Amino acid sequence: MSAVGPEDPGSRPIRDGLDHRGPVADGSMPAIEIHDLSIAFGAREVVRLEHLEVGEGEILGLAGESGSGKSMTALAILGLAPTVGATVRGTIRFEGRDLLALSPRELRDVRGRRIAMVFQSPIASFNPVFRVGDLFVRSLLLHGARNRGEARARAEEALRGVLLAPDLLGRYPHQLSGGQAQRVAIALALALRSRVLLADEPTSALDVTVQAEILQLVRALRDERGMSVLFISHDLAVVAELCDRIAVMREGRIVEEGPADDVLRAPRHEYTRALVAAVPKVGRIGGGP
Amino acid sequence: MSEGTSSVSAPTPGSPLLEVRDLVVRFGPVRAVDGVSLALPPGPFGLGLVGESGSGKTTLARALMRLVPASGGEILLEGTPVSQLRGRELNRYRKAVQIVFQDPDTTLDPRVRIGGAVGEGLRVHRIADRADAARRVVRLLEEVGLEAEHARRYPHQLSGGQRQRVAIARALAVEPRVLVLDEPTSALDVTVQARILELIRRLRDSHALAYLLVSHNLAVVEELCEETSVMYLGRIVEHGPTSALLSTPAHPYTVALRSAVPEIDLHARRRRIVLPGTPPDAARPPAGCRFHPRCPVAVDLCRTQVPPLREVARGRAVACHRAQEVLGGELEAELEGPSAR
Fold it and tell me: Which domain, by its residues, includes B34?
């Protein structure tokens, strides 16, 4: 993670937070609203966000390179940043509460239930000794299911919701393909009826074909269930495919933010232009070398 | 077994530098590579090998390095079969054909400084004495966009992109004839990927490199490869000039692969073809065309008859019963189908 230098004169945060075009009408409460967030390791501040919000039913893309602070931001939302030694200041509002002021017990209820997560390496983020079914049953019992039977039924329904066969519940994490594992992680969010999905590079380790499936699935979650999504990726093309609005992050700060089409069609910040240029395109030169 | 897959050779003038004929690699009952033929002409030349995880492309790359044994077929370097090579001759082959893996973290020894890693091949192959090796290492590092002082660093002190540059410098150190690049940018950020691809393009010209570039992303091979082969479940399903293959794909699988590439250009955004299911179990490949269970345009013939890899145009070969219809654009609507978004 690189240190944050003095403010780049060219990087003006563009804060038109109301300008999102999700399916939900303007004026509704954002699902997540961040104010004056500062994440630091000792004296070194790695993230400095004046304002960032994920609208209700919106897919917000957070784009930037490794080390830009995107994943630290996600960890802070989940209350996990202190576990890696970071100091977090500011406010993160979610359902009327400040996540940074919650007790560990309250936070546990939010994390993984109200706010679900999907990481880059899903197989590594599942406990390897539990079958997929146990994973669901344990989570659901912890978060409101009355008994194993009900938990099991909800798990099966959720798997069908992500187009997986219920017999996958009998498998161990290592027996899943990368794409299946990501679907399972998303199914868990469905089963827990999470309101927000935090997806941190969920397709970066996948083949492009499988990536296309997962992007389609995330979009369907939003369209059909109204889930709000914070989608983190270094790949602007992936963000472009999926997101309503894009925030571009560099060295801990948002350098550009706006509706996806505007940011991609006419990037205002030099860094956004560099990210756009880096995307390999089919048909760019229309021939071999 | 490999009916129809035999030797459709690339339409390249002159004899190939590296040739693969009907190669089979078996792991127990699984034929990970099942009768694959490829021809790589002398450099500068890039051959792309594209397919999903499990298609056998990495196994093929490893077989080329003789890291896994072939169960059938042959690999030839300048016409000489390599399967029988032993001892000193095998060492010569390994010097001539170098590989860069996807993840430099697992191929660089964390205890060996960068200079040692890049110079190792020079010593092993007795190319340079100690002093000369040190000079060459510096030159190689500079060539891949690093600096002399990086030689004293350890792998963990470098970024992922820098480590991949080290892996490329190490492969180049022994002046190989052929470079095998196995997903060299898949573990990297797109910005870093763009710089590594640029480096490969530069080295290709300065070293007259011939390389096999393995990737799951068609956009990556487009910029670096004259020709591309598409692999599915152990077999080549389409081969041709990269530009033709991308502008008018003839195999439904190539069509799907192409459509899966995420695009930033709003005008270029197309409907996605999302293939149903995952590649089938290679231990029990489907009868007929191996792609038929996921193919949006499969007909009865596809379920029973293996389509041979046959020439559909100059230099283009396709293993699909309906290739002519796909090429003619007659199946466009069906290919996009109901699963498209």
Answer: 18-247
